[in-house]
Amino acid sequence: MKIVRKDLVRNGPGSVKMVAVDSDDLWYAYNLIAPGDSVMAVTVRKVLREAASGGREAERIKLKLEIKVEEVADYDKEGSMLRIRGKNILENEHVKIGAFHTLELELQRPFVLRKEVWDSYALEVLQQASDPGASADLAVVLMQEGLAHILLIGRSPFHGDGNHGSNSIVKYLKKALNKFFENVLQAFLKHIDFNVVRCAVIASPGFTKDQFHRHLFLEAERRQLRPIIENKSRIILVHTTSGYKHSLKEVLDAPNVMNMIKDTKAAQEVRAMKDFYDMLSNVRSHSFEIVFFCCLVHAMIGILNFLYEKFSCSQ
């Protein structure tokens, strides 16, 4: 999230002008905006105008509105859009004060969020949105040839920095691979702060991770990149089945990774989730046993009732 302007008081009122750079930023906005806040942004609204014929015709125009939020209606990750519904509070010739409107927040379009109280939760979400690395415990580079994701794992849902590189076939493979590794190296330096994270994981199927690992350290020595040189022992390799985000689970299951972050918030949450799934699996197993036992008891009661009636009749 790009913060353009910030004017607020901790535990007091204030406003922040920001721009969502990627879909993860809209997710942060979804968690940040609450009923009672006000949001100002450029929007599109259908208005009625007098036609030359004397009638009225509808026209869609762009205008700036500020609404008092009543509902954070919908977060559309695929469409990269966040819809917020509320009443207009900004004087406008086309929209009456108090009229309902739905703002659609999109990528690269600035908006202003005002709150009566910026509490500790709101400030933490804002900090994570503007600097995801500030609260991360673990950095992961998930990659395969031509594709890489930089993921920062912390106390909130992980932040993905998107794709670096391309899956297209390149005529000069070695040159393309070096360019790809350089892009990943620049992203590594930009997003991973060893003063914050415990360790950085390079993960991939095959030998891509090993090649990038070697490239990383060669370039670090050549350019004297101190953050990498001084933290060699905190950069570890893990094998995964792919370079896509779903392979993050394989990284978090690796014992050497969990050992490096064992006393962090991220590790506690990973263990809690694993315990939950184990419990769910056991509950399902026990549920089957309970249902089977109940059916067996029910059948035996039926048989006993039948024998009792049979015995009573014979008497």
TrEMBL record:
Cellular compartments per GO CC: cytoplasm
Pfam families: eRF1_2, Pelota_N
Keyword Secreted: no
Spans traversing the lipid bilayer: 290-308
Originating organism: Arachis hypogaea
InterPro entries attached to this UniProt entry: eFR1_2_sf (IPR042226), eRF1_2 (IPR005141), eRF1_Pelota-like_N (IPR005140), Pelota/DOM34_N (IPR038069), Pelota_N (IPR058547), TF_pelota (IPR004405)
Annotated eRF1/Pelota-like N-terminal domain residues: 1-131
Domain of life: Eukaryota
Acyltransferase as UniProt keyword: no
GO MF annotation: an example: metal ion binding
Protein name: eRF1/Pelota-like N-terminal domain-containing protein
Record key words, sorted: Cytoplasm, Membrane, Metal-binding, Transmembrane, Transmembrane helix
Protein's GO biological process: nonfunctional rRNA decay; nuclear-transcribed mRNA catabolic process, no-go decay; nuclear-transcribed mRNA catabolic process, non-stop decay; ribosome disassembly; RNA surveillance
